[in-house]
Specification:
Pfam families: GMPPB_C, NTP_transferase. The chain has 424 residues and is an alpha/beta fold. The chain contains seven helices and 40 strands.
């Protein structure tokens, strides 16, 4: 049995982080999202993996290569036009000989979940199996109508209160080759894509057995920037302590840390773990790293900096006297001295963030900023909760940012002042 990982899309809801990389290559807990799925397939016994790539595919191919260093064999198929999940799956059909498992690349699954799929397929007659998971609000997902374990219908994003159940399609499938016959007869949806759920409906209408399997194992959807922080927290909490760098005298650590090679934590630094620090990092002196902070490789954190529950990507500098709260900061950024990235609204209401041009209630009270790669801030600049700054942008000294900044933009504050001599 082969595994198919769908990783051709950009992930527009993750912008500006995905302007320079595919969403599945965003790192949490020290690994790209996609690597967790590859390892889940491998640990479930599936060693032959097809990756359907497209947007910025070089980042994926350069990282995983032929898969040998991860204990698998990888073949790549390029989906030149992103025309939906059915179209993506169909692009791999010439490499499929029999049954196969499909995972969306932007979810994270437990290997036992994949094992459960295989066991169910081998023990019961079926053409397709969908992994299902239960959520409180199913209105943003594909909701299944199910009798016993046989799926009768899939309803995409039902209106609140109109869903037939709270069981949703988790984006994890096991198919036999008859799915390709259904894909051949699948028409474009209203949004102009070939949806695999429409192919499954064709199978249902032809009385083929499509089963659902409810998951009680780990299943994590990563679609929006603040969800990166949730996933990062989960994996850092599960990791074993591993200290390979240097810790100077006078450092205080409560809880576990992961400290990479050639990294140093300087005297006076105070850490509340779990905290992840990559390779080649320089922390302190006198810095404060709070729970669930993730620092990528070659990150510098200056004197008297406080970082809370944030992801700081490779090559970024957070300079002295700065505060970063509940934020995602891209690669090769320079956060100047005295920069404050706030994470709590003055009125204590939920933070809102623009996703694809529309304000979205994130459902959480604490959320800072999202910076794309190569962002520079000036000294004593401030960022309100929920703002995003595009790639290659710069914010001048003393500026207060309260709305999103596009990419390749310079923001300066206009200041007027008068010089008065003491003797006047």
């Amino acid at each position: 049995m082969k595994g198919v990982l769908l990783t051709a899309g950009e992930g527009t809801r993750m912008r500006p982080l995905t302007l320079t990389r595919p969403k599945t290559m965003l790192q949490v807990g020290g690994k790209p999202i996609l690597q967790y799925n590859l390892e889940a397939l491998r640990d479930a016994g599936i060693k032959d993996i097809i990756m359907v790539v497209g947007y910025k595919k070089e980042a994926i191919e350069d990282y995983f290569e032929d898969g040998s260093s991860f204990g698998v064999n990888i073949d790549y198929i390029t989906q030149e036009k992103r025309l939906g999940t059915a179209h993506a799956i169909n692009s791999a059909r010439d490499m499929i000989d029999d049954e196969f498992i499909v995972l969306n690349g932007d979810i994270i699954v437990d290997p036992e979940l994949i094992v459960d799929l295989i066991v169910k397929y081998e023990s019961e007659e079926t053409s397709s199996i969908l992994m299902l998971t239960e959520v409180e609000d199913p209105s943003s997902f594909g909701v299944v109508e199910i009798e016993n374990d046989i799926i009768k219908n899939i309803i995409e994003k039902p209106a609140p209160g109109e869903a037939p159940s709270n069981l949703i399609n988790a984006g994890i499938y096991l198919f036999d080759k008859t799915i390709f016959d259904a894909i051949d007869r699948t028409e474009k949806s209203e949004r102009g894509e070939y949806e695999i759920t429409d192919s499954l409906k064709i199978q249902m209408n032809e009385n083929k057995i499509v089963r659902g399997l409810k998951s009680n194992n780990k299943w994590i959807d990563v679609g929006r920037p603040w969800e990166l922080l949730n996933v990062n927290e989960h994996f850092i909490s599960e990791m074993e302590e591993d200290i390979q760098g240097e810790i100077e005298e006078g450092v205080t650590i409560h809880g576990k840390i992961i400290l990479g090679k050639n990294s140093i934590i300087r005297s006076g630094t105070y850490i509340l773990g779990p905290v992840f620090i990559g390779e080649g990092c320089d922390i302190g002196p006198n810095s404060y790293l709070r729970k669930y902070t993730y620092l990528g490789n070659n990150v510098n954190v200056g004197n008297a900096v406080e970082i809370k529950n944030s992801i700081i990507m490779d090559g970024t500098n957070v300079n002295h006297l700065s505060y970063v709260g509940d934020s995602v900061i891209g690669a090769n950024c320079n956060v100047a001295a005295g920069t404050n990235i706030a994470n709590l609204r003055f009125d204590n209401k939920n933070v809102k963030m623009k996703i694809k041009g529309e304000k979205f209630d994130c459902g959480i009270r604490k959320l800072g900023a999202v910076f794309g790669d190569n962002v520079k801030t000036g000294i004593n600049s401030s960022f309100n909760p929920g703002v995003k700054v595009g790639i290659n942008s710069a914010v001048g000294s003393g500026t207060i940012i309260y709305e999103d900044i596009p990419s390749n933009t310079l923001v300066l504050v206009k200041q007027e002042y008068k010089i008065i001599k003491y003797d006047e």
